[in-house]
Each structure stands twice: as C-alpha cells, then as structure tokens.
Write a sequence for this structure.
C-alpha cells in the first residue's frame, strides 16, 4: 500500500508532502547521539496475555551510526505447547523451540548482549513486560523507548502506526512476525521517526523536553537533543493551530448557497443510478474483488432513495447479510451531491461509527473519485417528477416546503449543474472524544502530579512506585501526542491518538459540553478541535454520529448538530432506550460531591485559585468579598445536599426488609419507584422538607456565584480558573431536584437508585425518566425532518411494527403519517423481484421487511430444552450446568451463553468452569470489573474459548466463523415487573406486559440469535434453555420471529448428543 492510503482524510497538503519526502529528508539528517549505541529489540510469544503466555523468540541488534553492527537471536522453550494460530502467524513450531534455552537462560544471554544500553522496541510495554516477568529480566536495561508511541508523536497524520504498516509506507518489506525481521525493519525506520520529530519544530521539542521535567520520561532526552536546533520563539500552539486551520476552509460557496436557497426543486436520484452501483457488473463489482450481487441490498437502497426523494419516514427491517450500510450510504451520498444538502447517519455505538468511517465511506469516496458512479441524474433542471412531492415537506406536515436546506456541500457550482463530484464525509462525536487544547496546555504547564492529587489521577497507589512512574509517563506521552496532533491535523478525535487510557484520565485532555468555556477559551472557535469538527460537518455530504449525540441535539433544540433534515437511524431498535437514558434527569450523591469539590472554598478548588489571583488585581476587595460569600453559600448548599442524601439513605434502609432491597448482593443497582402513594407517606414528607431547604440553598449559591463570575470577567483578563461549568452544574442539580421533588410532571417516571460500588459502599440518586419517548420524538424531532429512515435487523416483534412505531413516535404523527393496516408489514416481497417497491404513493410512512440472504434453513439449528425446571426451582442451576456441560463438550468450545442476571451466571459458572477445565475446555465470564470490549476481543481472538455474558453481549458481538458456533439463551429476557418504568406503565394500562415487555423481549432474542450467523458460510446452533417457549402461549411468538422457523424440542440430557450427530462442521 502507498503512503497516501494511510494519510488521514483532512491532512493538509503541505503536511502530506512532508510525509511523502520524509525518507529522503531523513537520509540527509545528522541525528548524532540518537543514532549511536542503541539496542533494537523484538519478541515473539505464545499469545497476548501477560499472565498465561510465554516467550518463544527474542531478537536484538546493536546500532552504531545507523548501521547494525551486532545481532542476538534465540528461540525460547516455553513450558506449554505453542498454539496452532501462533505457529501459523510466526512459523515457529514446537520442534523449533524443543532444544532452545529456557526463558531464564535466554533472558540472561540477552542481558549480557544489551549491556545496559537503551532499548528501542515497537510497543515496548509488551516486550518489556514479558522479559521482566522472567527472573533477572529487570536487569536488561533501565531505558526502554517505545517507538510505537514515539511514531504517533512524530507522525500524527497517519491512520496506522503498526510496524508492518510503517514499513510498507516507507519502502521496507522485512516485517514477517519473526523477531529478527522486525528488528531490522525497526532499525531502518528509526531515522524516519527522528526526522518526523524534527519536522515538528525545535520549539515544540523544547516545550516537550521541559514539560514536568521533575519526572523520568524516556522520551525527554530525545526531545531535548532535537531542541538544540535554533528556536526563534517559544512554542505557541494557538499560532500553530492558526497556521494549520484555515478559517474559511469549510465555508460554503456563496454562489451555490444562493442557488440552493432560490430553488425549491429537488434533483432526484434515479433508479437507474442505484441499479448501476449494485448490479452484478456495476460499480461495486469494480471495487470488491469477491462482490456478490444481493437483490435484498438493491431493494433496500431503492427504499431509501424513495423516501429521501418523496419525504416521510421509512422503517426497514433488514436481515443479517443484506449489507444495509452500503444500501443506505449509496443513495444518501447521491442524494446529497445532487441536492447540496447533508444526510445524517446515526448509529448506536462509536464502534459502528468508526466502521462506517474507515471501511464503507472510504470505498464510496473511491467510487466517486474514480467517477464510476453516475452522479448527475437525467431529470431536467427545475423539474419535479410527476406524482411526487418535494422532500421539502417535513415529516408529518400537511404542506410542502418552499426551499431546500441552506446547508451546501461544496460539490456543485450551480443548481442542477453537475460538476466533478466532491464527496465529503465526517464523524461527529461527543465533547469528550476530542482533545481540548485549553485543558492540554493547562495540564502541560501546571502541576498535575502533586502528592495531594487523587491517586486515580495518575494511576498510583502506595507501594507501587513503578506502576506510578509508568502512569506518569503515559500521561506525559498523551500530552505530547495530543500537541503534535494539534500542530498537524485540522480535525479529528482522540480515538486516533492511541492513548493508553488505563493510566491516563480522560479528563486530562478532554472537556465536556458543560465544562467547555466557549467564548472564554482562546482557541474558540476556529482553532478548537471540537468546533472544527462541527464546522466540517456543516458542509459534509454525509455526517456520521451516534444516537447519543443526535438525541442530545434534540433535547437541546438543535444546537448540538448542524441543521440536518435527512436522517438514517441505524441500529434503530435501540433508539428509544438510548433516548430514555439520555433524557433522564438525575441528582446523585456522587455528582453533588464532585461538583462541590471542584468549586472548592477559600482554601481549595476554583474559588481558592480565583481568590489568590484576585489579591493582586484592581477591585480585589469587591471580588474577594463575593468569592468568600460564594464559598460560604456553596458550603451551606453542600451540607444541605448531604442532609438530603442521608435522609434518602435512611429511607432506603427502612424499605429494605419489605422489599428485599439489599438482599441480593449480585445486583449492582437497586431501585424504588416513587409512586403517588409513596409520596403521601410520612417518611417521604420528611425527605420533601429537606429537599425544599436544599433547593433554597442551591438557588442562593447559584445566584451569588453567578454574580462573582460576572465581576471576575469584568476585572480579570485571564482568570486562573473558570466558574462557568460549575454554574451550569449547579443549575442542572437545582433543575433536576426541582423536577423530581417540586414539579412532579406526569411526563416522567420517578425513582431512587442505589448503586453499589467496590467495597460495598453505596451511592444514591434521585432520577426522573421520560415515560413516553415517542411523544417527545413526534413533537420535537420527526416533524423537523424531511426524510427519516429507521433501520435494523430487529425492528418487528412477530412480524409487526406496532411496538417500534409507538416507541419512536411514528404512530403520533398527523393524518398523513398514520399507518396502514395497523403497521403490518408487506410480506409479499420476493428476492427475485428487485424492482418491486411499495406501490402506494403519497404515504409518508412506509414499512419494509427485507429478509436475510443467508441460508438459515441449512446453516442454523434451533433447539429447545423442554424439561429444565423453572429458575425459581432449587435444582435449576445444577440442571442448567449439566446441560451446558454436554453442550460445551459436544461443540468443543466456541459457545456464547447469554444470561439475564449476574446471580444465575456466577452460580452456574462456579459449577461448570472446573468441569470444563478438566475436559480441556476454557470458559470465561463477564466480571463486574471487566471491560466488555476487552472481553469481546479476547473471545474473538481465542477461537475455542467459551463465554458467559450478560446484556451487553446480547447484541453488537460480531464473531464470524468458528469463533462462535453456538449461542445459548439461558432465560427469556423479560424486563423486571418491579422496575419503576414497568410499574408506572402497569398503573396506567393493565396490558403493559403484552404491549412492552413481550415485544422488547422478542427483539432482544432476535438480536441474540443474530450473533450466530455473521457470514454466508457460518453454521451454528441456537439453544433455548427456557421451557416457557413450549408451555406458554407467547412462546410461539419468539419462535416465529427467528430466521430459522423450524426447531427441535429435546430433553436437556440429550441436547449434547444431538449436536454431536448434526455433522454441520
């Protein structure tokens, strides 16, 4: 691959040219001591785990004057056999290491070779950890230089800094997953990394060398040496940003914008254009070597094109394998280019956002760049097709708009005049996904590692000096990477930076929407990375974001995102739950404590910093008086809040015996529904009195601290601290408390939450959640859109869209938006008739159910255990463990068992894991402290590993092939009838369970079943360990919703044997 393939999309031209000539530049440079007396090192191991894996090869080379003058290489004999996948990767066999030295002997030989010299290693933490785990390994060297982290500083505009990729970019081909080859490749790359650092400038090198110089940091001597070049002035990141960010870079072309505003006409995307992309010999076939034409994908693309052209809402359930990402991206891109308007794509997770940004959208951009896509439609200018209405009519409105969006993608020169298509796209994430330059500079120049700091801030604990040192170094590296990135990249988020977040607090280099200083920040708006991303989004054809940010924008009346009027909501089955979570109002003991700790008083926090600064300013007496009074009122408000939560804690303890509130220690969160009956009790009236006093104290604190902030702004040009975010936080606390305790709006369901943390301590929260999310969406968001497509593999329950329609507000639209036949979907579509579309015109709400292209009939089996006892039975766990044992043995691993609660999962794991270990099978469990993403990566990497998991694994796990061959649904995932939302609904409607709990559980089961078959060649078994599927009348609804309609009911003891006889693999 060429270097161009690895440059970030927004890399400025001059930076790109520097990178392309970097190899030649490096050859002409003299790096003196930085090229002499270094050891380059690499290792190969039996896997990635520091706890269970071992060294199998070590290689090293000594560098003098850019040349390798000596080499060291040895195999290492591990105590276990080398896994087959490692042999395939490295070509190191068990025979190779049979007579090799032990790890201790090999490390001793390495120590003699290194002789204490500095070591260069790509991802040095990995190699160093494996070597120092061996006795005597800590004596190899005191200085390890991580060239992976250093390359991220030197070359921040690259999308990858893997050794193999860097070697390919700069013309080396030695990387082969063998240690000596990797050593030689790294030796050749070392001058290029140094050259990249030199091009960042001696001013930045000096700044980094001097940053927190009281702490050891392996990179400091390198930066200090490179800083010996002549420095004209000190490092000024604001000036650097000004040079790299052109304020008019994303300003729409004036002529195009005027033309767009003047013309009410849409320039349609024609059916022929869509066909030309997806047909067997079409544009896609020229990009994907193994492209397969899928009629289902074409049909979905046509559905998207239809709704974008005519306006309205479309709900599309597209089965796994349809290829829905490209099916909605292609028509959206064509529509955007044709009509100079942006299209928003909202996904549930940033994982899918990144997939779209790094896989599908670059392919689409390549299609446009190579002009293999017909952009200009054949419809004449200023003409709307007969029988269609302009997409200017907002969803649910009775009239049509007279203008298109004022947003203009700079790809056309006049309305209807086709120019060379410039296709642009970007991602928008929340504030905490972007580096905050104001906080970075503050962290780089002010003490952040003082002993008074919270241990969590630098990852240190008493008696762990080495870990603390590594954590501090990781923080310094994070600051260096962020500054280098800001100097070369106009836009981008922190996910590109490769920061080790285990040791770096995110708050060190990012801000929040509440904490952003906006106009008070020197980087606002043009030099700010957050607002640069938003400016870019304002003129991009495709804007990819997540549900959370979109819903925050809805709640903030459209001030978060650009004014997009065409939306695709992917993973739409989660849209309602995300909205309920984001639109909740809450006041918690933890948030209250953090807010008042940040505000501080006369001796600590922001108020203290301002008092110290005010002492030397004009008008200091007035400001000091206001700040002192603010400190007193904030202390009073803090005490009132503590009193309130003490009352709440006592109330919860009184409720415990009757509710079993603390009885089950396996649940992290417990809830109490604040019903009208509970509000009438004497115990709650006592809480109400305390809450009233708390609100009064908060009002006084907000009023006074706001007055102090205004005087500070008038008197102090550059304050050492800002109270803006603190004022916002106090106002939010007051508003939430007022809503819950005073206003008591019927639009919300209210509850007390008790969250159990490590050490069995408890945090309390008062919480208000929107009762009807659909009503909010129908009132505040859907009518503002000209088109909206909801899509997912699981939108229907038993073939019915009614539950989803209600969840997102579609059934609340006006007469134009009412559903036909109660939202029943049209089952008449046949895959061999791709031209078939909805025949009804002028219906702004459409539904389509597009089946998967996978052969479930032959590749998937569904088994139901018909005789397992109910979960309440004393013998349930033992019988479940017996069945799972036979299943795991029959499958020989690769089983994902999905539980609905931690109690059952832990009890079953305790019985099953030792038995499986004796059978040579590995079983992992989702622990409370385990990252779900890390566990998912481990599960995918270790192909025979089986896993017990909870809710987070019911959807979103993409493990194709032999990694996952069996999914066990232990229990049907009904929501608890005792959670506050269920109780509030039941109090208003006696059919709540049928309207909400049942369809939600069916959709969850469909999601879980979707984990099993992820490609056309996958085969697998879906097992239900819940006999209610056969004994309850609702069971048939679950079974009929599965892609494989046939099932086999067996006694639990025979399921393992049945699997053995399937011969599917």
């Amino acid at each position: 691959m060429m270097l161009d393939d690895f440059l970030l999309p927004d890399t400025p031209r001059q930076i790109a040219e520097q990178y392309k000539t970097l190899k030649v530049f490096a050859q002409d440079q003299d790096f003196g001591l930085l090229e002499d007396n270094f050891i380059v090192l690499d290792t190969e191991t039996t896997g990635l785990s520091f706890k269970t894996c071992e060294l199998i090869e070590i290689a090293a080379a000594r560098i003098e004057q850019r040349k390798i003058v000596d080499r060291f290489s040895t195999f290492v004999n591990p105590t276990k056999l080398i896994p087959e996948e490692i042999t395939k990767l490295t070509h190191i066999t068990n025979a190779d290491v049979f007579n090799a030295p032990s790890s201790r002997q090999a490390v001793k030989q390495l120590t003699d070779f290194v002789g204490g010299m500095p070591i260069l290693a790509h991802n040095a933490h990995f190699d160093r950890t494996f070597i120092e785990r061996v006795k005597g390994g800590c004596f190899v060297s005191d200085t390890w230089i991580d060239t992976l982290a250093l390359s991220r500083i030197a070359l921040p505009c690259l999308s990858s800094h893997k050794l193999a990729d860097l070697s390919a970019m700069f013309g080396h081909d030695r990387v082969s997953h063998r240690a000596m080859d990797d050593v030689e490749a790294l030796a050749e790359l070392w001058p290029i990394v140094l050259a990249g650092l030199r091009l960042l400038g001696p001013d930045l090198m000096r700044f980094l060398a001097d940053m927190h110089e009281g702490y050891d940091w392996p990179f400091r001597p390198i930066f200090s040496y490179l800083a010996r070049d002549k420095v004209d002035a000190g490092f000024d990141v604001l000036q650097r940003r000004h040079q790299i960010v052109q304020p008019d870079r994303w300003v729409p072309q004036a002529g195009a914008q005027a033309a767009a505003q003047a013309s009410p006409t849409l320039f349609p995307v024609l059916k022929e254009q869509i066909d030309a992309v997806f047909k067997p010999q079409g544009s896609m076939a020229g990009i994907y070597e193994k492209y397969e034409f899928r009629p289902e994908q074409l049909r979905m693309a046509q559905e998207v094109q239809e709704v974008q052209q005519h306006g309205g809402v479309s709900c599309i359930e597209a089965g796994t394998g349809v290829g829905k990402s490209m099916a909605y991206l292609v028509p959206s891109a064509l529509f955007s280019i044709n009509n100079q308007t942006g299209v928003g794509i909202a996904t549930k997770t940033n994982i899918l956002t990144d997939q779209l940004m790094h896989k599908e959208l670059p392919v689409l951009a390549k299609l446009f760049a190579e002009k293999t896509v017909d952009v200009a439609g054949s419809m004449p200018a200023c003409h709307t097709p007969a029988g269609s209405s302009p997409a200017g009519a907002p969803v649910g409105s009775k009239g049509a708009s007279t203008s298109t969006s004022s947003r203009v993608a700079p790809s056309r020169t006049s309305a209807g005049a086709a120019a060379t298509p410039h296709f642009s796209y970007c991602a928008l994430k929340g504030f905490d996904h972007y580096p905050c330059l104001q906080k970075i500079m503050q962290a780089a120049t002010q003490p952040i590692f003082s002993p008074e700091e919270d241990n969590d801030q630098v990852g240190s604990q008493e008696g762990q000096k080495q870990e603390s040192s590594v954590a501090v170094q990781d923080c310094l590296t994070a600051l260096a990477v962020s500054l280098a990135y800001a100097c070369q990249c106009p836009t981008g988020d922190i996910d590109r930076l490769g920061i080790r977040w285990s040791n770096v607090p995110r708050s060190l280099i990012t801000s929040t929407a509440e904490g952003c200083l906006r106009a008070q920040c020197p980087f606002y708006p043009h030099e700010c990375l957050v607002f640069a991303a938003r400016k870019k989004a304002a003129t991009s054809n495709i804007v990819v974001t997540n549900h959370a940010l979109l819903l925050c924008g809805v709640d903030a009346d459209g001030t978060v995102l650009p004014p997009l009027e065409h939306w695709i909501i992917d993973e739409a089955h989660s849209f309602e739950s995300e909205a309920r979570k984001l639109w909740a109002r809450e006041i918690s003991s933890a948030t209250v404590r953090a807010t008042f700790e940040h505000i501080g008083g006369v001796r600590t926090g922001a108020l203290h910093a301002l008092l110290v600064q005010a002492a030397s300013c004009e008008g200091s007496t007035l400001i000091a008086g206001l700040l002192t009074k603010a400190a007193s009122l904030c202390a009073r408000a803090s005490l009132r809040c503590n009193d309130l939560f003490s009352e709440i804690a006592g109330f919860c303890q009184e409720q415990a015996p009757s509710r079993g509130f603390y009885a089950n220690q396996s649940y992290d969160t417990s809830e109490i529904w604040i019903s009208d009956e509970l509000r009438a009790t004497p115990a709650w009236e006592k809480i109400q009195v305390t809450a009233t006093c708390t609100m009064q104290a908060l009002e006084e604190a907000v009023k006074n601290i706001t007055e102090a902030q205004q005087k500070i702004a008038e008197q102090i040009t550059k304050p050492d601290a800002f109270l803006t975010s603190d004022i916002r936080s106090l106002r939010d606390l007051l508003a939430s408390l007022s809503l819950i305790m005073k206003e008591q709006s019927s639009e919300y369901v209210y509850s007390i939450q008790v969250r159990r943390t490590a050490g069995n301590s408890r945090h309390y929260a008062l919480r208000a959640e929107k009762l009807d999310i659909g009503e909010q969406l129908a009132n505040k968001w859907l009518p503002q859109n000209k088109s909206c497509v909801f899509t997912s593999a699981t939108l229907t329950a038993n073939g019915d869209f009614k539950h989803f329609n209600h969840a997102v507000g579609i059934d609340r639209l006006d007469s134009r938006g009412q559903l036909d036949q109660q939202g029943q979907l049209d089952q008449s579509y046949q895959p061999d008739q791709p031209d078939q579309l909805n025949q009804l015109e002028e219906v702004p709400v459409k539904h389509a159910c597009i089946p998967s292209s996978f052969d479930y009939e032959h590749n998937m089996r569904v088994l139901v255990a018909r005789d397992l006892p109910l979960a309440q039975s004393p013998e349930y766990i033992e019988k479940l463990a017996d069945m799972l044992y036979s299943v795991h043995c029959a499958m020989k691993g690769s089983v994902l068992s999905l539980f609905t609660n931690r109690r059952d999962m832990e009890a079953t794991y305790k019985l099953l894991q030792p038995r499986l270990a004796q059978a040579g099978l590995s079983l992992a469990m989702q622990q409370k402290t385990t990252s779900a993403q890390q566990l998912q990566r481990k599960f995918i990497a270790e192909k025979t590993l089986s896993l017990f998991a909870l809710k987070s694994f019911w959807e979103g796990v993409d493990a194709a092939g032999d990694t996952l061959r069996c999914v066990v649904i232990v229990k049907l995932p009904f929501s608890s009838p005792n959670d506050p939302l269920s109780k509030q609904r039941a109090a208003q409607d006696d059919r709540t369970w049928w309207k909400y709990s049942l369809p939600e559980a069916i959709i969850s089961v469909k999601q879980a079943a979707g984990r099993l078959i992820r490609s056309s060649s996958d085969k697998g078994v879906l097992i239900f360990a819940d006999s209610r599927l056969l004994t309850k009348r609702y069971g048939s609804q679950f079974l009929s919703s599965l892609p494989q309609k046939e099932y086999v009911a067996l006694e639990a003891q025979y399921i393992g044997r049945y699997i053995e006889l399937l011969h599917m693999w």
